[in-house]
Design a protein that fits this description.
The chain is about 75% helix and about 0% strand. By secondary structure, the chain is an all-alpha fold.
Length: about 210
């Protein structure tokens, strides 16, 4: 006589719910609101407040909160890292390359290191610097500098620097004759001559005061 197998307690194997999307949304929400409690986050996300579902999510969150929070921080790093200006338009090929580079960075650095990068990007001083670089005043200063570089006066100066006359002057300054003259001016003999001339002037002033 065959004895029927006794069913064990608990949920049958294979009937577990896939709550990963909900837990990921919880992590994103709690990372954006550090004071938010897990139960409050669950109630904000769920469409229906089924007590059994809330309890199941609470249990899973307590067991895996660290992993989901690290993944949320990594997502924020990828979303917050600016590779070009926000209003720039990418070609499909460039967009694919950027996406691949972000995935490669994620795989190479790992979640923990990406979280450290995110913390550095959220530094108040760095945020203030980024805001200053994108401010209207900074954009106006950059535009003024561009206009100054492209002004007729600056173009004339650049043309003068690259003219044959300036090249001839530079070549003359670097010629052996000019170098020899500079070395002679700095030689001990010329220094002694200048010192002797200064002493003679002193003697002349002293003698002039005696008469």
């Amino acid at each position: 006589m065959n004895t029927p197998m006794k069913r064990g307690r608990g949920r049958p194997v294979g009937t577990g719910k896939d709550d990963a999307p909900t837990l990921s949304r919880m992590a994103d929400l709690m990372l954006a609101n550090p004071n938010l409690r897990a139960t409050t986050a669950i109630k904000r996300i769920l469409d229906t407040l089924d007590p059994s579902v809330i309890r199941r999510l609470q249990v899973k969150w307590r067991a895996e909160a660290g992993r989901y929070l690290e993944q949320a921080r990594a997502r924020r790093v990828v979303a917050a890292t600016p590779s070009r200006r926000a209003n720039a338009q990418y070609t499909p090929r460039t967009a694919r390359q950027l996406s691949g580079a972000q995935r490669a960075m994620h795989d190479a650095l790992g979640i923990s290191r990406l979280a450290s990068i995110q913390a550095a990007l959220e530094n108040p001083a760095l945020r203030a610097a980024r805001e200053m670089m994108g401010s209207p005043a900074m954009q106006a200063a950059q535009e003024a500098a561009r206009r100054y570089r492209e002004s007729p006066a600056m173009q004339a100066i650049e043309a003068l620097h690259s003219s044959p006359t300036m090249r001839a002057i530079e070549e003359m300054q670097n010629s052996p004759t000019i170098r020899a003259m500079r070395e002679f001016q700095d030689s001990p003999t010329m220094r002694a001559a200048r010192e002797a001339a200064q002493e003679i002037e002193k003697v002349k002033r002293m003698l002039g005061g005696c008469f």
